[in-house]
Design a protein that fits this description.
The protein is an alpha+beta fold. The protein has 3 domains: 184 residues, Four Helix Bundle (Hemerythrin (Met), subunit A) (Up-down Bundle); 104 residues, 2-Layer Sandwich (Beta-Lactamase), CATH 3.30.450; 157 residues, Reverse transcriptase/Diguanylate cyclase domain (Alpha-Beta Plaits). Helix content is 59%, strand content 17%. The chain has 16 helices and 12 strands. The protein has a 5-stranded antiparallel beta sheet with strand order 2-1-5-4-3. A 5-stranded mixed beta sheet has the order 7-8-6-11-12, sandwiched between helices. It has a two-stranded antiparallel ribbon with strand order 9-10. A hairpin with a 2-residue loop joins strand 7 and strand 8. Helix 2 packs antiparallel against helix 3.
């Protein structure tokens, strides 16, 4: 958010004595200050255009208001016609400046633009508008037109011209200094924001990062480095990194690394040492030099990544991508791969594969009555019971909500699956403790057999799902076999 700065400070000496005109002058000043702030703080073109258009639109509205007042009291006079001409000139100059802004860029025209607007406003208000206002105020007091002009002319003496010129010089100096200061503040804010972002990234990364001087003495670290060496940040400052991690930075290895960094500016590779538990550990080190343009390295930046941690992280990502977070069972993605493997084994062994789609009966009522925590506990308990019922190469997966899929391979015939399913139904129906409550669910199971049912692999799940709905319609807590069309 851009907070307007005061480029053109309002002063009560700008008051003309005509309330509506003075109110609109203050609004124009506010819009000028807003535009100058957007220019100084580097607003993007769409926002600049919006602020510019707001200023131009309001100026036109103000001119119509003023001209209506002048024409009421001074219709078709030389003064009123000249005043209208100044309004037209202003609109033309603003449009020219806007065009320059679009073509030349804001840095080249912003000072010219703000200077023009401040000059025009100060001169227009202090001389032209005040002069017109004094005539109208005199007319309102009963003076004739000639008398009103004479009164206004007397008050708008040569001293007023000197005052206007003095004020303009003051505004020139104030505006240029204020804009320069605003640009400097804006640039500092951008740099500080970038530095804060960089520091947050460095502090948040799990890699250990250290910065040293040219003698490898630590001048900064991130929290991960402190955690790895089990020392506080302040106590590490000034120590040689080779002394802090001596098992990783042996003298010979350090000389080799620094020689490479001196030649190419960086070194990357694996180093092996012992961690704080005295266990051998492989670490991936990237060491880079920060150099003066014409001199040797003045600092070094090192990044340490534990190879074992990288492998663990990779394995964790693989697990997360292929397994259900609540139950730890394979998810739909991994299930599809398991189905493909099971079909391949079935083709090779010429034995039957059973794909079973299991849906819990009454699970929604548990969620609604006891809450989702109780529902999660039921799902975990059912998953554990299904896993316990599996044989060596069988698979159970959770594919969403209270839906599970089981793969049973190496079957001689359909009759081989019935004892397994009877036991599953019995195990699932056993009471489950969820904190202070004990609940029960049952299961409906649909089964299809490969290769008796041999559509594309993804259709096998659809057929098992259809058989499961048949089981629910027949009374639940039972299983039904899918019957392929002849």
């Amino acid at each position: 958010m851009i907070h307007p700065a005061i480029i053109f400070p309002w002063n009560e000496n700008f008051d003309t004595g005509i309330a509506v005109v003075d109110e609109q002058h203050r609004k124009l000043v506010d819009l000028l200050n807003n535009l100058a702030s957007h220019l100084a703080y580097g607003a993007e073109a769409p926002e600049l255009n919006r602020v510019f258009e707001e200023l131009a639109d309001y100026a036109l509205y103000h001119f119509k208001t003023e001209e209506a007042i002048w024409n009421k009291w001074l219709p078709e006079t030389e003064l009123s016609l000249a005043h209208i001409k100044t309004h037209q000139d202003f609109v033309g100059e603003v449009l020219k400046l806007k065009s320059d802004l679009d073509t030349l860029g804001k840095e080249k025209v912003m000072d010219e633009m703000v200077s023009f607007l401040t000059h025009w406003l100060a001169f227009h208000i202090l001389e032209a508008d005040k002069h017109m206002a004094k005539i109208i105020l005199a007319l309102q007091q009963g003076a004739s037109l000639d008398e009103a002009k004479e009164i206004a002319q007397g008050e708008m003496s040569g001293a007023m011209r000197v005052l206007i010129e003095t004020v303009l010089k003051m505004y020139d100096s104030l505006s240029s200094r204020t804009l320069a200061l605003m640009r400097e503040i804006a640039e500092r804010q951008r740099v500080e924001q970038s530095l804060r972002l960089s520091k947050n990234v460095i502090d948040s990364t799990i890699e250990a990062i250290f910065v040293t001087d040219e003698n490898m003495r630590i001048i900064d670290t991130n929290p991960s480095f402190c955690h790895q060496v089990m020392q506080e940040h302040q106590k590490l400052i000034g120590k040689r990194v080779t002394d802090v991690m001596p098992t990783l930075f042996s003298p010979d290895k350090t000389d080799e690394i620094l020689a490479a960094v001196g030649q190419s500016g960086h070194w990357t590779g694996e180093i092996i040492g012992r961690n704080n538990e005295n266990e051998l550990e492989a670490v991936w080190l990237t060491l880079s030099a920060i150099k003066d343009p014409q001199g040797p390295p003045t600092q070094f930046v090192g990044l340490l990544s534990s190879v074992s941690q990288l492998l663990e992280r990779h394995q964790g990502l693989v697990e997360a991508a292929n397994h259900d977070t609540l139950t730890g069972l394979p998810n739909r993605r991994l299930l599809e791969d398991r189905i493909s493997q099971a079909i391949t084994r079935s083709d090779r062994s010429r034995k039957m594969l059973a794909i079973c789609f299991l849906d819990l009966d009454g699970f929604k009522q548990i969620n609604d009555t006891f809450g989702h925590d109780a529902g999660d506990e039921v799902l975990r308990s059912v998953a554990a019971r299904l896993v316990k019922a599996l044989r060596g190469d069988d698979t159970v997966a959770r594919i969403g909500g209270d839906e599970f899929v089981l793969l049973f391979g190496e079957l001689e015939g359909e009759q081989d699956i019935s004892p397994l399913l009877d036991r599953l139904l019995k195990d699932v129906a056993q009471p489950i403790s969820t904190g202070d409550n004990t609940v029960s669910v049952t299961a409906s199971i649909g089964v299809t057999f490969y290769p008796k049912d041999a559509p594309p692999a993804e259709a096998l799940l659809q057929h098992a799902d259809a058989a499961m709905y048949d089981a629910k319609n027949k009374g639940k807590s039972q299983y039904r076999f899918y019957q392929p069309s002849p």
